[in-house]
Amino acid sequence: MTGKERAQLRAQANSLEPLFQIGKGGMSQALIDQTADALRKRELIKIKVLLESAPDSPRAFADALAEATGSEVIQVIGGSIVFYKENPDLGKEEKKKPAKKGKPLSKVKAKRAAAMKREALEKKQKRDFYAKKRNYSKTGSSNRNSK
Length: 147
Fold this sequence. Notes:
The chain is an alpha+beta fold. It has 2 domains: about 5-95, Translation Initiation Factor IF3 (2-Layer Sandwich); about 100-140. About 60% of the residues lie in helices and about 15% in strands. It has 5 helices and 4 strands. Strands 1-2-4-3 form a 4-stranded mixed β-sheet, with helices on both faces. It starts with a helix and ends with a helix.
């Protein structure tokens, strides 16, 4: 994995919430299974190590868990560990889904949008009205002078 790819994944992981916590119990088979399952569904996950009660360092947990799940350690900062494992099937599922339309507006936003459309229409009508009036007055005054 290149440094740019790793940096991009770190940036994506910033907004993630930790899925699991490793505490005084340490690493168990259940944790490994759940982590592997989460990586199949999400590709990128964050795990929190409780520094006060964990029996080992976050780096040791990260290396052991990465080896057990076949994933890559993207980042270990303090008690947070970020893992990545590519899932080619996940990309195919996303392509099959139809494109989503934007989420529906709230009532307040919908009213604001309707009001803005009305204002724009009124401005256009007013502009057209005065443009016609100017054109009429120009043609009307030239007709009066010619008589």
